[in-house]
Write a structure and sequence with these properties.
alpha+beta, two-stranded antiparallel sheet, 8 strands, globular
């Protein structure tokens, strides 16, 4: 299962040139609950508005193509077929991934992940604006912990706590985390 996640991540980045590891490090992630078809359009609209404000970013929403692919080939990850698959890119040739939007492996629970980026100030402005709008539109959106490595845990390894999502202590060693880590749930 973890190999499928890694494969999906590689597919996401395959359109871009070889970035250095620091620029593709995840710096923030949030789960947006989709409860109606309008949610998809609203999220893409928020992303497009902030991307166009930058002037060199754009949103590729390939959800329809991805659903067609999965209808023909089956789900790419355990947990069911995804309903949204989009990316925010800098440059006309998708030179730099800025954000990844997907509910692959956890349908209806859309994860928006943001990378550090090559142009940190621009990526930060975009991220902060999008996160503020997401929280305004979906007050029940939940932050997802970012691992020290710059990745995110698997959905099935998260538990919901009063502080938001944290990693189940039983799987903390899988992520090379001590049970005292702030990303690990404490009883």
């Amino acid at each position: 299962m973890r190999n499928a996640f890694v494969l999906a991540t590689l597919v996401i980045c395959s359109a871009c040139s070889a970035p250095d590891q620091e620029t593709v490090r995840t710096v923030a992630a949030i789960e947006v609950p989709f409860n109606s078809p309008a949610d998809h359009a609203d999220l893409v609209s928020i992303l497009r508005r902030h991307a166009s404000a930058d002037g060199d970013m754009h949103v590729d929403d390939v959800s329809d193509s991805w659903r067609k692919f999965e209808a023909e080939n089956g789900p790419t990850l355990p947990g069911g077929k995804g309903t949204i698959y989009a990316g925010v890119w800098r440059g006309a040739n998708d030179d730099e991934l800025i954000a990844d939007i997907s509910d692959m492996g956890h349908p209806g629970r859309v994860w928006v992940t943001f990378v550090k980026g090559e142009h940190v100030a621009r990526a930060t402005r975009f991220r902060q604006g999008v996160l503020a709008d997401i929280r305004g539109r979906w007050p029940d959106a939940k932050a997802i912990p970012v691992l020290p490595s710059g990745g995110v845990p698997l959905a099935e390894d998260l538990v919901l706590t009063a502080q938001g999502y944290q990693i189940n202590p039983a799987v903390a060693p899988n992520y090379e985390l001590s049970k005292s880590s702030p990303t690990v749930a404490h009883k």
